[in-house]
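Reviewers of the previous submission asked for a worked example of the structure-prediction workflow described in the proposal, so we include one complete record here. The input consisted solely of the amino acid sequence. No template or homolog information was supplied to the procedure at any stage.
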Amino acid sequence: MLQYFKQRIGERSSGMITYEEFMEQALYHPIHGYYMKSGEKIGRSGDFITTSNISDIFGSAIAKWFLRLTKEKNIEPAVCELGAGNGRFAAAFIAEWQRICDKELHYYIVEESPYHRERQREIIHFDQRIKQIESLEKISPFNGFVFSNELFDALPVHVVEMKDGQLMEVMVTFDEDQGRLVEKLVPLANEKIVNYLKQSDIQLRNNQRIEVPLAMEPIISQIANVLQKGLVVTVDYGYNDAEWMEPVHRDGSLRGYYKHEQIKDILLNPGDVDITSHVQFDSIIRMGEENGLKFLKQQRQDEFLLSIGLLEELQNHVDPDPFSEVSRRNRAIRSLIMPSGISSFFHVLLQEKGIDV
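From that input alone, the workflow returned the following structure tokens.
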């Protein structure tokens, strides 16, 4: 894919592209993009792991919680999952719903990756009620539950840096001598980025950089326009605006992952490495409010799971066999609710439209 970028950059009069364009192509190019190519990406044999791939407990717990809400708040039993990956969350959610409820469930998956759509078909029986769809517009207007798990952290972002008192945009160019992609700083000229920083009230210190997720607003706007009545639940990792200003985050959060190892130089081996940045939660809340999504609350994932009753799922009898189903299930539950577990790195953000929660 390096030659592809060399040619693409060479065709530009400026001789450079934004980080957003680089990420868009590196991740979502129809042939060379990381997410679009075949190959395991999630789980032990992939490059990263998600909560839903540790155990089916996560999907089943959310299913029980949503079932309660459909009864209490008269919400339609319908789910739209954005970016479902290998489908494990959806499969666990659907299986639990069918186990505990006779009411018909509609479950829609919006997924760009052909590879992941194929993986989803291996574990989910799709029919008239459970479907893979091309876009949210296919189900507009929608009543129900819009869910995403690590969607926003995979969006392309611009990168800006404060250099000697001037805001600069970090661009990507090709260095002929090194034979590789490198960064180049130019004075910030994109008004959309300037406005985003003002709205977020983010004041960068000298030599501090941050990612600017302009691609986030169209997605939030689209969700708000399609959703008529229901909940939006976003699971991801990130910081609020005040946390971004802390010295520990002065280098930003853009990084890659390959075989579960963190890659700091994401310009190496484009198309073969997962690229991610931490989510800016305050911006999701602000953009949601601007588009009619009311903010309810944000919790750390372990706190959220405890609040919806996951602790009650823990079976407290001793099983001498550590490989038994009960033992494995209890270990999975503990890994999700212990403060030192994977859930401590994630947050759950709840927004609503048309309901009183």
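The first strand starts at residue 17 and ends at 18. We consider this example representative of the routine output the project will generate in years two and three.
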